[in-house]
Amino acid sequence: MAAIRRSEPDEKLKRRFSFAEILAFLLISGQIALYVFMWFRLLGDSSLKTMDFVSFYGTGRLIRAGEYEKIYDFESEAVVQHQEVGGDYDNPLIFNHPPHVTPLLALIASDDYVNAYVYWSQGERILRLDKFRKT
């Protein structure tokens, strides 16, 4: 009777990771975890509403309301921004970008400011990754 012989495992299956590979994996994983933690912490922070995105959001809200002529009007911007930020917000930011950006801002300016910020951030990330891919 023929003996059943066990074959040696393939060398590819026996591969061990080097210290540098394990360290790189742990550092990258830690960085991703830290980024996710900081991202969710920012979304709950009240300072999010005083970042420069508030001018984009205010312009998007004006466009969605059909008030195209008011996107460069300081008083209109201040009213929309104050409605969103509330409280003692005394430093509204004027929209100072070309008008061809406004259709994009109208798309992301949902009723929820935090969701609009998430949409804006993800759109920026996609554009940056696309630019990085082309180089």
Could you tell me how far the N terminus lies from the C terminus, measured between alpha carbons in angstroms? 64 Å
The biggest beta sheet reads: none
Question: Which structural category fits the helices and strands?
Answer: mainly alpha
Q: How much helix is in the residues?
A: 55-70%
Based on CA atoms alone, the radius of gyration comes out at: 25 Å
Low-pLDDT ranges: none
Q: Any idea what the shape is?
A: elongated
Number of helices: 5
Tell me the total number of β-strands: 0
Please explain how this structure is put together.
- The protein has 135 residues and is mainly alpha-helical.
- The longest helix has 25 residues, at 19-43.
- Helices cover 58% and strands 0% of the residues.
- It has a domain at 45-134.
- α2 packs across α3 (74-85).
- The model has no long low-confidence stretch (mean pLDDT 81).
- It has helices at 19-43, 53-64, 74-85, 102-108, 113-134.
- It is elongated and about 65 Å long.
- It is built from five helices and no strands.
What features would you highlight for this structure?
single chain, 135 residues, mainly alpha, 58% helix, elongated
Task: Give the SSE map.
Blueprint: H1 19-43, H2 53-64, H3 74-85, H4 102-108, H5 113-134
Brief synopsis:
By secondary structure, the protein is an all-alpha fold.
